[in-house]
Amino acid sequence: MNYQELANKIKVWAKELGFQKAGICDIDLRDHEANLQNWLDAGYHGDMDWMARHGMMRARPSELVPGTMRVISVRMDYLPPEAQFAANLAQPNHAYISRYALGRDYHKLVRNQLKKLGERIEREVGHYGYRPFVDSAPILERPLAQKAGLGWTGKHSLLLDKDCGSWFFLGELLVDLPLPIDPPHQGDCGKCSSCITSCPTQAIVADGVVNAKRCISYLTIEFSGVIPEEFRKLIGNRIYGCDDCQLVCPWNRFAKLTHEEDFHRRTVLSSPDLVALFAWDEKTFLENMQGSAIRRIGHMQWLRNLAIAMGNAPYSTTIIDALKQRLGMSTALDEHINWAIEQQVTQIPNSSTKLDRLIRIVQKGLPRDA
């Protein structure tokens, strides 16, 4: 079999399936094992216990899928039109949702296309071993993508390509074919440190090293507990993820808009007013987030994140009333709601009106005759 010819065909097929780029690499990630272990030893994975549980398997694809010889790494752009980055962040009464989560959940879409790529290869070569992955297995996808020539790992730990920035998803097809490999990407960020200095919580502790316990994306998505008070003001109006490190990256000036309509902003999030989103009951949340990555955090965590954003919003009796109506749902949620109410109360302008005085008294827990 002419494996070079097959590799060339694979890249053509990948583009036909909606991937903007594909590359092939070997499975040797030994050079990354020490950094992975150091990251785990430092506890930077937070409550993501599966990171430590799988250990070095993340750097050993052949342990994940025995017989694997090569990884076909693919990129799919997701930047939606009318992304409204600055607009959302500049409107504290609106929720900011990470760009990748505005449309449908990418996991199934990218995985299905990878599966089709595997099947297309099978029609060409006959039966062989392959398995697609999209954030669904313990695997170091960014080092593999760099080895496959798709870009370099930026100081924010995300993959970067000078032609398209970082607004793209990655996926991997593990195969047992001895395909020729592509040269690894040799790019770097140079002296630029915009992502490090712009991180709201200073989560990027070294070049390419992120302390998840300080990262807003981790806190609002992966972490289901009580968000430490030191981070709540810094979260601002970000209720699901954070794009700040990508927003300031100069390479993202060259990002291409996605051609995939599933990644466009869903209508229900076209005007993400905090109070309106906070009013959703669980049934409404599940219906509105059907097919969205946001759905997996659950209604209670959705309310927790919104409560923090509402506490950071400008003073409003409407916000205070909405927060009060959610008290009593859970102890953890109450802690965030009470904090949010306190933040709102501290903004109450000096006024002698009966309404303002009543709010001060009730929310500060003072007797009504105080």
UniProtKB/TrEMBL annotation:
Enzyme Commission number, as recorded: 1.17.99.6
- Which parts of the sequence bind [4Fe-4S] cluster 1? C189, C192, C195, C249
Q: Which reaction does it catalyse?
A: epoxyqueuosine(34) in tRNA + AH2 = queuosine(34) in tRNA + A + H2O
Which biological pathway?
tRNA modification; tRNA-queuosine biosynthesis
Note on how the cofactor is bound:
Binds 2 [4Fe-4S] clusters per monomer.
Q: Supply the HAMAP family for this chain.
A: QueG
Function of the molecule? Catalyzes the conversion of epoxyqueuosine (oQ) to queuosine (Q), which is a hypermodified base found in the wobble positions of tRNA(Asp), tRNA(Asn), tRNA(His) and tRNA(Tyr).
Give the 4Fe-4S ferredoxin-type domain ranges: 177-209
In this chain, tRNA is annotated as bound at K283
Organism this protein belongs to: Vibrio zhanjiangensis
Q: Which SUPFAM superfamilies does this one have? A: 4Fe-4S ferredoxins
Describe the protein's quaternary organization and the partners it interacts with.
Monomer.
Q: Where in the cell is it found?
A: Cytoplasm
Tell me the cofactors it needs: [4Fe-4S] cluster; cob(II)alamin
The family line of this record is:
Belongs to the QueG family.
Instruction: Tell me which UniProt keywords the record has, alphabetically.
Output: 4Fe-4S, Cobalamin, Cobalt, Cytoplasm, Iron, Iron-sulfur, Metal-binding, Oxidoreductase, Queuosine biosynthesis, tRNA processing
Q: What is this protein called?
A: Epoxyqueuosine reductase
Report residues binding [4Fe-4S] cluster 2. C199, C215, C242, C245
Q: What class of enzyme is it?
A: oxidoreductase
Q: Which residues form the active site?
A: D135 (proton donor)
Residues at which cob(II)alamin binds: R58, D135, T153, L159, L170, S217, C242, D243
